[in-house]
TrEMBL record:
One of its GO terms (molecular function) is polygalacturonase activity. This is Rhamnogalacturonase A/B/Epimerase-like pectate lyase domain-containing protein. Residues 1-25 form the signal peptide. Transmembrane segments: none annotated. Residues 83-308 form the Rhamnogalacturonase A/B/Epimerase-like pectate lyase domain. Residues 58-74 have a biased composition (Pro residues). Pfam families: Pect-lyase_RHGA_epim. Residues 51-87 are annotated as: Disordered.
Amino acid sequence: MEPTQSLIPPLLSLFLFFNIYPSAQYPSPTTVSGDRHREALRRFEALKASRVRLSDSPPSPSPSPFPSPPPPGSNGPRVYLPTSYGADPTGKLDSTDALLAAITDATNGHSEGSLIAGIANLGGAQLYLQGGNYLISRPLRFPAAGVGNFVIHGGTIRASDSFPPDGYLIDLSTTNGNDKTTPSSSYNYEFITFRDLLLDSNYHGGGISVINSLRTGIDNCYISHFTTNGILVQAGHETYVRNSFIGQRITAGGDKGERNFTGTGINLQGNDNSITDVVVFSAAIGIMVSGQANIISGVHCYNKATGFGGTGIYLKLAGLTQTRVLNSYMDYTSIVAEDPVHLHISGTFFLGDANVVLKSVNGVVNGVNIVDNIFSGNNNGVEIVQLDQSNGNNFRKVDQVVVDRNAVVGMKLKSTVAKKIVEANGTSLMADFNDVLLFPNLIKHVQYSLSFEGDTFPSYVLRNVSDNRVVIQTSEAVPANLYVTVDQSIYN
């Protein structure tokens, strides 16, 4: 008998008994007349009978602890719960098959129209992890391509010790290995969202892989203990990573094992992606970009100090960078750009000798703006922008490169625009800009003026511009001040 069924009737009878006999005593002939006595007994017997009927009624069915999944083809709300498929939310037992079954049912569910051609609209179906902790031994892949408008959210997924070292906890690719196209669409998936997830790769493989997908969202995720990539984006279009925390080892800086950090926090191998308000706190490379037209904004990289061999942001698409790095924080980690073409870096704080390195591959740098940043160093003579020409192929094709208006403390200022005042008494006045100009032997524009003392006004001429030196020759020796502005960025 259920507890509520055994307690309520006695309370009810007691309540009615006190209503009948306020004195809480059984009636007696001396206190109650005959008719009133008989009526009281009749009512008391009726009360006992009703109590017996209530006690003998069958118990109501207890609710199912795990709601059943929506039936296939259902037009109603479709929220799929892993526990309905037998998943263990404590993380003690392997839940791979249960999670894959839930994903299969969700992606095979009712769809209404399509998104981009060939992508079925699942209507916002959800795999809700219910705040559980799920252990998996194989990647979570969709059963087939061609679906969109689906969300996985609200829990923890952790790799088991047998998870494949080259796998990803969530693998948004196709199970047949055809990751470049589907029969009816140029993309595998569209508008798939991963949010409010903690992904623990357990030092086996990576976190999330997004292959040839369109408009994918990764929001408010914590990805740790990866050995390859926290997030891999390959081909596709418009993957947006927002408000997330990514690190191989869980640390808040000053880790004794920092020299041994490996892997890459985010690896962008596609075009038109965005990384916004993301922290990469441990990895050999914070963000690797080898696709075009990507934007990185509000990122904090302290993944592995450059002094320990780490890189904050590595722009690897030589000759076609087309990347913007805005309002970010490079915390002891540098930005490296190979043969950058169309690169904009501004509003970013570089701490602890972090800087920008332009690395020559074919000796090309074009359309680069490094402006309005803050550099704070440790007085080690590190240049805020450095040329890496260690392969012996110096930068020969330099055009439209602007490095200017940067605030510098404790580091060596480098710029493509510079001004100097030279005081001299003779026929030759020279301004040497090698200490500040970025590129050697490259002055494209000179503007100067002379101020003479006394009543003489000799003739003068710009005699030489080479080796980043400006030489002015006068017709006679006189005390003079030379004011010079030079520019390496003028368009050819």
